C-alpha cells in the first residue's frame, strides 16, 4: 500500500492578511484548496491512503475531504491537541505507519513524478530519502552535503556560519521514510525535522538526497501565493514535472563559467567571469535546466583529490547562490586516457564513456532529468565541447572566452563572445520558436 502523511495543521499567520478564517492548507489557489492539489497528486501516483495531521480549524479540512471517497483515496485524520512541530504528529502515528511512507507539508505546492522518487528510494535501499533542490537563496535555507552516490554526509540548518561554502542542495520539505526513522523521534515532544532530526540522522541510518528540478514552493506568504498562482497558469508547474521532457543548457566549466588558468586544482585559483552569475540566473528564469559538464583530468593526473574538486565546486555554487543563481547538477569526468604524468592515478587512466568529446555526461544527465537532448544546447569553448554536444544531438554554441578562438575542424552551430551572449542567443531562438 502506498501511504502518505500530510502535515496540515499550520495556522498560516503570515497569510492572515489574505484569509484568516481558514487553515493554511485550505488556502485557495486558482479556486481550489492547496491541499486538494496534493491529494490529487497522490491519487494520480497510486497512493491508497493519506493521513492528515491537523490542528487549527481542522473541522474545515474534515468537512471538505471527509473520508476521501470523493477523491478516490482513503483519508484519515490525526488531530493534534497541542502543536508538536513537524515531528510530534508523525511520531503519534508510529503504530499505523509500519511500512515505507511519504511525508508532505500542507503549505507547499508540489508537482512531482512521485514514481521516480520512490524508485530512487528503493534503488538506493535508503532508510530515509530527503527531496532536495537548488534554489536562488541557499544562504538562508537548510542545506545538505552528499557524496557522489547521493548519500547524505552532512546537514546544515540555517543560519549558517559566516563564510561557509556549500553545495546548493536545499531541503525541499518532502521525505520518504522507513519505519526505522521512528526510533529517532521522541513522543510528546515538540520538534522539527530540519533543526532536531536531520542534522544527525545520517550518522545512524542510510539517508539519501533526491535532487530534482520539479516544482516545490512554500506558500507561506501573500507574495508566494501570487507566484504560485502565476506559475500554475503559465504552465511552469506542470512543465517541471519529470514525467515531461525537460530542456537543458549544458555548460562547460573552465573558459565558460570561470577563467581558465589551465588545470585548476586549488580553490584559490578558481575565479568566475564577472558576467557568469547573471547569465546563469537568466538561464534559471528562462525555464531551462542548467547542468555543468566538465572534463577534470586534474584527478587522473594526481593534482588534486575528489574532495579538493568538491571544494572548488562548492566555491562556485556559493558564489552563484549569493547572486541568486544556481545549477541543477555538476557532472565531471575524472579520467584521462594518456599516461606519463608524475603523480598520475592509474585507475583513472582509462578510455571512459564520459570524457568529452564523448557525450556520456550529457546522456547521463538526460536520463536523470528526462532531458530532450534535441531541444537542448551545449555551450563550450573547445572543440571537445562542440563535438560532445553534436554527438548528443544538441545545438552547439562556442564562446570566444577560454580556448574559444583556437582553430577547430569542428564548427559549432553558433559562435558568440561569451556565456552572456550565448544566453542572449538562446533567448532569441526560444522567442522565435514560441
CATH topology of the largest domain: Spore Coat Polysaccharide Biosynthesis Protein SpsA, Chain A
Name given to the CATH architecture of the largest domain: Alpha-Beta Complex
Domains, number: 2
Give the CA-based shape: globular
Helix content: 25-40%
Task: Kindly describe this structure.
The chain is of the alpha/beta class and 434 residues long. The protein has two domains: 3-238, Spore Coat Polysaccharide Biosynthesis Protein SpsA, Chain A, CATH 3.90.550; 245-433, 3-Layer(aba) Sandwich (Rossmann fold), CATH 3.40.50. Helix content is 28%, strand content 21%. The protein contains twelve helices and 19 strands. The longest helix has 17 residues, at 306-322. The two termini are 43 Å apart. The mean pLDDT is 94.
Gist of the model:
The protein has helices at about 35-45, 60-65, 90, 115-125, 195-200, 220-235, 235-240, 275-285, 305-320, 360-370, 385-390, 420-434, and strands at about 5-10, 30, 30-35, 50-55, 75-80, 100-105, 110, 130-135, 145, 150-155, 170-175, 205-210, 215-220, 250, 290-295, 330-335, 375-380, 395-400, 415. It is an alpha/beta fold and about 425 residues long.
Secondary structure layout:
Layout: E1 3-8, E2 28-29, E3 32-33, H1 34-44, E4 49-54, H2 58-65, E5 74-79, H3 88-92, E6 101-105, E7 108-111, H4 114-123, E8 128-133, E9 143-146, E10 152-156, E11 170-177, H5 193-201, E12 207-211, E13 215-218, H6 222-234, H7 236-239, E14 248-251, H8 276-286, E15 289-295, H9 306-322, E16 329-333, H10 360-369, E17 377-380, H11 383-392, E18 395-399, E19 414-416, H12 419-433
Parallel strand pairs: 1-4, 1-6, 4-5, 8-12, 14-15, 14-17, 15-16, 17-18, 18-19
Antiparallel strand pairs: 2-3, 6-11, 7-13, 8-11, 9-10
